[in-house]
Amino acid sequence: MDFEIIFNCPECGAEVSAQSSTAGQTLQCGACFKNITIPIPGLEEGLEIGDFVLRSKLGSGGMGEVWLATQISMRRLVALKILLPKFSDNKRFVDRFLSEAAMAGQLSHPNIITAYSAGQVGNYYYLATSYIDGMEVATKLKIDTKLSEREALKITRDIAFALKYAWDEHKMLHRDVKPGNFMLDRKGFARLMDMGISKSLKDNPEESATNIIMGTPDYISPEQAKAEKNIDFRTDLYSLGASLYHMVTGRPPFQAETPGKVLQMHVKTPLTPPENINPAISKECSALIQMMMAKAPNDRQSSWDYVIDDIEAVLTGRMPGRKTLGLFGKVKKTGDSTSKADAVISLKGKSASFNKKSADNAGDSGMTVAMDSNATMKMDAVAEDKSEPVPSSDSNTKARTAQAPPANRPPPKTRTVPPKIAEYNKRFLNKLNMLILTAIIFIIVLAIVILAVYHMKK
Questions:
Q1: Strand locations in 348-419, DSSP E?
Q2: Are 64 and 40 in contact (CB under 8 A)?
Q3: From 2.160.10.10, 2.40.70.10, 3.30.470.20, 1.10.510.10, which CATH number describes the 135-416 domain?
Q4: Whole-angstrom Cα distance, residue 415 to residue 397?
Q5: Cβ–Cβ contacts within 10 Å for residue 339, how many?
Q6: Digit-coded pLDDT (tens) for 384-422
Q7: Superfamily for 40-130?
């Protein structure tokens, strides 16, 4: 039953009225003309929901609100996600909300937000997760516009470790990797959150949904945009590359008037190299992003280990896409790391004077349906188009739309090696061969001398 709710504008304090069915949506305050979120009726500070006491509202999304709460039994702070009452009778939304709890509950990794418990009290469905005293990367981007290359790479590396764990250990895909799902603590340590539309290929290898597109348009992979059935970790890899693109350039990779056009651009439009948007970006970082965002999954890195190796290479000023050789010429794999040894990323500066309410009301450019600005769009998938690709709207030269070299290792048969890397490899191999030949000659001469001296003494 729909009823009127009355609340005060969080910006100016003016009294605002709205229908209960619109809870969670945004409207414009008639007094200050700012966009505000209509609260869930009945939720207020001090309210007890099962084992939890609400303390303060942290944010809201398309499916509900997030509150800072105290878990009474454990005497700890938690982030409590509460589903909008209008969705409580909708089995589809309830199942997806509880799916987030089940997915997150399987994961235990320092770069992933920990899920504690989930349940129902009255008309409220809730999910309790660990509380991180920090800021979403999307919020930080609203303040600072873009991040430094090194800061963005460290965040990307932290999230790559989380995604590597989810895939390697649980064959789990996130399917909505974006800055809005990266949480930074006060030391700049990044954690992945919101497993609400995740998919486990281990438990449901055949699970697929034709023409159901899951994700946020700004960061979605081409194969997700086409609603392809056979996707793997490389779809999250593409989205992580798109997130890195946004972090270093200050804008998503593709922009258009409608979400549908953005989806088409991910599939067909050549990527504008990030260094053309922000000249401060190194060629190494630009090449890494283009590798991660290759249109064809086979042209991206072939494992999360290689992704992490490439990020490490760029952080040390080296071009990505090369093998790291260990003892006896074996490819060196990168192990799990929480990056604590790195210099911390400061949240000070411009962020220090940030008014959280303004950021909460600033909105997200992505289409939102799920709790933390996830998007679930039911529309026709972007069809495969074998015609010539649509040129980029802001491409001025051929260099602006040039794609980075493929990054798979071992390389596919169609892989082309950039001239500079090929020349470097050729010189390296020539030097190595000369060194081996010299060593062999030295050993032979030494053996002859030893034998000669031995016979002379006889």
A1: 376-378
A2: yes
A3: 1.10.510.10
A4: 24
A5: 18
A6: 544 444 444 444 434 433 444 444 455 444 444 455 555
A7: Phosphorylase Kinase; domain 1 (3.30.200.20)
| Angstrom distance (rounded) from CA 247 to CA 138 | 9
The C-alpha atoms of residue 95 and residue 77 are separated, in whole angstroms, by 26
Instruction: Find where tokens 């249109």 sit.
Output: 295
Residues classed as catalytic: 176
Q: What is the DSSP string of 97-142?
A: HHHHHHHHHT---TTBPPEEEEEEETTEEEEEEE--SEEEHHHHHH
How far, in Å, CA of 205 to CA of 378, rounded?
A: 22
Q: What is the pLDDT of residue 322?
A: 62
How many helices (DSSP H) and strands (DSSP E) are in the chain? Answer: 11, 17
Angstrom distance (rounded) from CA 124 to CA 49: 8
Look-up of token digits 């034709």:
210
Q: Which three-class secondary structure state does DSSP give residue 37? A: strand
User: In residues, how long is the chain?
Assistant: 458
What residue ranges do the domains of the chain occupy? 40-130, 135-416, 417-458
Q: CA 38 to CA 70: how far, in whole Å?
A: 24
What does DSSP assign to residue 331? B
Measure the CA–CA gap between 122 and 118, rounded to whole angstroms.
Answer: 13
What are the pLDDT digits (tens) for 160-181? 999 999 999 988 899 899 999 9
